[in-house]
Amino acid sequence: MKNFFIFLLVLGIFSNHLFAQKFMSPYSQGFAGKGYLVKNNGEKIGVKFKTGLFGTSGLMWINAIDTLTGVKTKYKVADMKEIGFKNNAISGFLNTIGQGAGSVKAAMNTDFKNMMKLDYYVFYRVADKKGKPRMLQILNPGWDTKMKVYNDPKSKSTAGAGLTMGLVGGLAKSFYVSKGEGGYSIFVEKSKYKKSYSTIFQDCPSLVEGIKKDLQWDNFAGHVFEYETACN
Question: Is residue 65 part of a domain?
Fold first, then answer.
């Protein structure tokens, strides 16, 4: 009975993410928490965040303490490849599921693994539309092997954000998108989507053909998910 209740709770909270596909919300929890950081040399360390600065170009710098050595360091964009902030709301929830709900996890299968990707708000260093390096948040963790969608810090939302443990309702009016490992980023925006969608998904003709009558900007997340799951 307990597992059945948890299963229903999972479906209720994550139904939009699993079946309608929505992007994560932009990070807004501040710097008083734990996470990880990947340095330029590829070394990944656990850290405790102290202070930092977000601007219109993304995460600009952050002070973090190495949880093993206790050393406090100021990291700028040029000093790191990736950084992850713990998603406190969902971390506790997923931990609860993990305690005595093995059958639920098995039933959720791959979708549960994707949910676990929501455990962190992750930022990667990418080039913006002018070629400048920025630390931008990835919004489609768990379904990002073919295309990564990043938050545009300057973007405005199409509607009020309806947040559910890190999932966003109103869609931003622009994003940065990259394909493949280390692929360069392109700027995608609502006002030009109907003209640019065929270029964005050009290596998947079946998707381009299938969505040409469904080019509502609010369906962009669904188009990206279909690109991830249905295109070779």
Answer: no
* 110 in a structural domain: yes
Counted domains in the chain: 1
> How far is the C-alpha of 123 from the C-alpha of 160, rounded, in Å?
23
> How large is the average pLDDT for residues 10-38?
73
**Residue 92, both tokens:** 């506790």
CA nearest 210: which of 189, 231, 179, 190? 231
86 Cβ contact list (under 8 Å, min separation 6): 33, 34, 35, 119, 120
Query: Does 125 map to a domain?
Result: yes
- Is the pLDDT at 71 greater than 80? The verdict is yes
Rounded to 10°, the helix 2-15/88-98 angle is: 150
Of 195, 176, 188, the closest CA to residue 133 belongs to 176
H or E element that contains 53: strand 44-55
Q: Which alpha helices (DSSP H) does 16-67 contain, by range?
A: none
Residue 85 has pLDDT above 80, yes or no: yes
CA pair distance 81, 220, nearest whole angstrom = 27
Separation CA 14–CA 16 (nearest Å): 5
Kindly report the pTM of this predicted structure: 0.78
Residue 74: its pLDDT value, please? 97
Domain, as residue range, for 167: 2-29+87-230
